[in-house]
Design brief:
Elements lengths: L2 H30 L1 E5 L5 E8 L5 E7 L3 E6 L4 E4 L6 E4 L13 E5 L9 E10 L2 E12 L2 E10 L14 E3 L4 E6 L17 E6 L20 E4 L4 E7 L4 E6 L6 E6 L36 E3 L9 E2 L12 E5 L4 E7 L5 E7 L7 E6 L5 E5 L4 E5 L6
Antiparallel strand pairs: 1-2, 2-25, 3-4, 4-5, 5-6, 7-8, 8-9, 9-10, 11-12, 12-13, 13-14, 15-16, 16-17, 17-18, 19-20, 20-21, 21-22, 23-24, 24-25
């Protein structure tokens, strides 16, 4: 064999060997990012890493069936293709107050969303040197947000950088709900002249529905749907059962799942199942008081919930109607079984061994679960073959 032919042969062999090692590396990577797991109740599922190396993905929503729009608390808005894992940036994000627990928060699309419709966002906004929770909407044209409209700049100003809320959900009658934390000022939650510590209900254009419980009542903000909340970072309207659910942070203990009814007082800070940060002392006056609602479930110690959905059962029939919440402090996916009367009758803690602070939860059109983590990942839970 001539020297030239030997050289070509060696180059070809090196290329083949190189491709072989690249293939092996990719296979190992895919195996490492896809795990087969089983819940304690016997439901098998596959856990996959869809994206990594992100900021803190705070909110997620589907645009159609094959794209996820998500927010990062640092103020970025991005678009994810869940099949390829490709992430692209969206321009035109609002200017946010990125400090403490504040920043760009939730993103949501209403039922029946189609390309070019309104997309809704909540974020912390600097107003006269203080932070407030704001609700805005915009349209996505290509990779750019346009036609921004402020729907409600809440009366929730505080010098703190804590407890902004804020999640968004929709019913099927043209209403939007979003949550606002007490802004680190406990008395706000019992003050109906502030939006802090409340869940708010609006029409999709930002107007106040006339059937809101405090509509045209003197001294009360008409947008308020319920109050007495500490920091609700998960709300979800169950269209099947026509129920609005919320999950909120307690102090040391006392995280609560609540069934939200119009005009009701959920007690914070007068009643709580939590204790003071500075010592083993009960917060408020106890755990019950006439005229204040009891939680459907409370957590002691705190799990630090960051999100909430009611699961449809499309891909995992055994989980139909269950509540799923992301746990931040106790780093797991919290599953709660609810009976027909709205009572919590069982709990399971999934993904505990991974140590991930689970921030947001999103269900896909086919019933798969997407989870975002504070470590900058987006994960997917889907069935293994023939799983029901």
């Amino acid at each position: 064999m001539s020297t030239a032919k030997q050289y070509k042969f060696i180059r070809k062999l090196a290329k083949i060997v190189g491709l072989f090692f690249i293939f092996c590396w990719l296979a190992q990577t895919l195996i490492a990012s896809s795990l087969l797991l089983k819940s304690s109740k016997g439901v098998s599922f596959q856990l996959e890493i869809i994206a990594d190396g992100l900021g803190v993905p705070w909110g997620m929503t589907f645009l159609g069936t094959d794209q996820i729009l998500f927010t990062e608390r640092n103020g970025k808005i991005l678009l994810l293709d869940p099949e390829s894992g490709m992430v692209s940036y969206i321009s035109g994000a609002p200017k946010v107050m990125y400090a403490g627990q504040g920043g760009l928060l939730d993103v949501a699309t209403p039922p029946g969303y189609t390309e070019g419709d309104w997309i809704y966002f909540t974020y912390s906004k600097k107003l006269q040197g203080k932070g407030v929770t704001a609700l805005v909407r915009a349209k996505l044209i290509g990779k750019h947000l346009v036609e921004f409209q402020d729907l409600l700049i809440t009366r929730s100003a505080s010098n703190t950088s804590r407890h902004f809320g804020s999640r968004i959900t929709f019913d099927d009658e043209g209403h939007l709900y979003f949550s606002v934390g007490d802004r680190g000022v406990r008395t706000n939650a019992q003050d109906l002249s502030t939006h802090a510590g409340s869940i708010i209900r609006l029409a999709l254009n930002g107007s106040v529905p006339e059937d809101n419980p405090f509509f045209q009542k003197d001294g009360v903000l008409p947008e308020i749907w319920s109050y007495g909340h500490r920091n609700p970072q998960g709300i979800f309207f169950d269209i099947i059962q026509q129920r609005l659910w919320s999950i909120e942070h307690g102090p040391r203990g006392g995280d609560e799942i609540n069934l939200i009814l119009p005009g009701r007082n959920y007690g914070w800070p007068i009643i709580s199942y939590g204790k003071e940060y500075w010592g083993p002392v009960q917060v408020g006056e106890g755990t019950e008081k006439e005229g204040m609602e009891q939680p459907v479930k409370f957590y002691v110690p705190s799990i630090a919930p960051g999100s909430l959905i009611v699961y449809s059962g499309k891909a995992f029939s055994a989980w139909k109607g269950n509540l799923f919440a992301g746990a931040l402090k106790l780093t797991h996916l919290n599953r709660v079984e609810i009976d027909k009367d709205g009572r919590a009758v069982g709990e399971e803690r999934l993904l505990e061994k991974f140590g991930e602070r689970i921030r947001a939860i999103l269900e896909s059109p086919e019933g798969w679960l997407y989870l975002s983590t504070d470590s900058g990942k987006i994960l997917r839970i889907r069935p293994v073959e023939n799983n029901q």
